[in-house]
Amino acid sequence: MPPAQLAIIGAGPRGVGVLERLSANAAELLGDRRLVVHLIDPFPPGPGRIWRYEQSPLLRMNSMTEDVTMFTDETVRIDGPIGPGPSLFEWVERLRAGEVDHALAGDLGDELNSLASTDFPTRRLQSAYLAWFYHQVLADLPHGIEVVEHHTRATGISDDVVRLADGGSIRADIVVLTVGHLDAEPHPAEARLAEEAAAHGLAYYPAGYTADVDYTAVPPGEHVLVRGFGLAFVDLMLLLTEGRGGRFTELCGGLHYEPSGREPVLHVGSRRGVPYHAKPGYKLQAERPPLPKFFTPEAIYEIPGELDFYAQLWPLIAKELAWGYYHELFNGHPERVRLGFGEFADRFADHRWDSTEMHELIEESVPGEQDRLDLERLDKPLADKRFDSADAFGKHLREYIEADLARRANPAFSADLGAFMALLSVYGRLPGLVATGRLDPRSQVSDLDGWFHGFFSYFASGPPPRRLDELLALEQAGVVSFLGADMDVTLEDGRFVGSSASHPGKVGATTLIEARLPAASLSRASDGLLRQLLETGQLAEELVRGIPSGRIHTRVADGRVVRPDGTPQPRWFSLGPHTSARSAGAFTRPRTNAVSFRQNDATAREILRTLTRPPRSPGQG
Fold it and tell me: Residue 105: how many CB atoms within 10 A of its CB?
């Protein structure tokens, strides 16, 4: 029998993660069948596009070295075998000890030698880790599996043949799309804005992956409106300041920025009007809270009928976050509470999160207001705040960022990390919730995919603290100014005008940058392959009972692609954040039963079963 042919389109960490699971499960499920795996990606296998080495050395991960792994461990609940291996920091330690043989680029030597477990590594170092992981997967392949790399793009699929941009083609028995976030053409409102901007000679940069956008045309000294205050803004801020020759120096115990004179002036605002919270710089002081506690399948099952995310599920999620928070506060800092944890936990379990009784319990048992979890204020820190001037607002926001940095650096506030851990637990359970089909469709698209995903990113996926220190230094140097919440941009008298709900001031500019990734939109995908597959009816955009979500429609249980008529493609699969599974990143924290690892294993096992399943006889149902 000729070998089976499998095409994995997208050879970044997700695609290589699927390859690792194919290898791990082959002994049980592949048998004597031979398999050729074609990895198709113009970028290096392992790192892929996002984590490629060829990007600015200024760009860092927003995870600590100890919090990154590509390997399954004993916590991961999968049917396939566990394949343990080193986290990023453990790999660094083995490299330093000479226990790992991997050639690093010369400019990574200093970082490698000085990196601590709680440092935030460069993306270039993560690229090296992912490249090493890929080579480990290749070295561990069982007999009968061969990998062929194709350093090009896939441009189309028809009749089980994958066409390649270099003119070649591959016959594929099975296709796996691991294409990551979907780059998208501007949505209609952005497209109209771009047309109007062009008509007035203005520069408009739509949403995109910051490291791939060319900002060299932004002139020095130019006043630039920036819409978005998350991780994309942090990257943009660095590329247009330090990336243009400016320098950060320590001065009198604080950070100081020395401009090069080539920087523009960035006026930044967003819906919240504040940057993402800095990552915590401490560990839990008590044992890790037992999670999940309240946001469980049993609790969700008890809610009758269709589920409204914000009205019915958010109270359970909020109680889960509060459980993680107060578990750490009571056990890690008992001197700051009035009740023993046993009594508090019993009473806490009896009350709804949004009840008067819960409010009274927390007021009674937690005397310090700074020790009480206020999720509403956390989500909307500038709500109902209006300042008389841009200067007054700027002063307030500087104080807000300074307080956030102080709190995230002080282990006295490790309860915040308890809430963080609970939020990660909740996020990992959401794909299973979506798979039940019980969510109200509008609530799923607007509340879960919209608001909650934004809240998760804002609270749990923020930048290293150093980045907010740099932001403050840039603001003091006059290179960045804070525009405020509910940022609005209009075109007036041939220029962009930015305003906000935070103060009456306005800023005029000739350049506008959308500092964010595009929202999921298969219908506007800029990738030619996805457009071709959508136009020919081989892929479908997920409809949540008639409401488009923008994602590739897949079967959550095994990643199988779903056709426009609702039937599964028998031999096509897709995994990633912009599929129905709504998974997080391809790598994750160690020992967290990561959903991405579970999805990789389930899909790999289904692929192997499909390859070895006897063909159906004519007329067989």
Answer: 12
What is the model's pLDDT at position 615?
Answer: 57
Boundaries of domain holding 363: 297-460
Helix, coil or strand: residue 7? strand
Using only C-alpha atoms, what is the Rg of the chain?
25
Instruction: Calculate the average pLDDT of the chain.
Output: 94
CATH number of the CATH domain containing 499? 3.50.50
450/444 Cα distance (integer angstroms): 8
Within-domain flag for 146: yes
Residues 153 and 171 in one domain: yes
Output the CA torsion 147→149→154→157 (10° steps): -30
Q: What is the DSSP string of 251-262?
A: ETTEEEEE--S-
Q: What per-residue confidence (pLDDT) applies to 73?
A: 96
- What was the pLDDT predicted at 613? 81
From the list 40, 50, 42, the residue with the least C-alpha distance to 15 is 40
DSSP state string for 23-36: HHHHHHHTTT--EE
95 in any annotated domain = no
The list of the chain residues with pLDDT below 70 reads 614-621
475 falls within a domain: no
The rounded Cα 73 to chain-centroid distance in angstroms is: 21
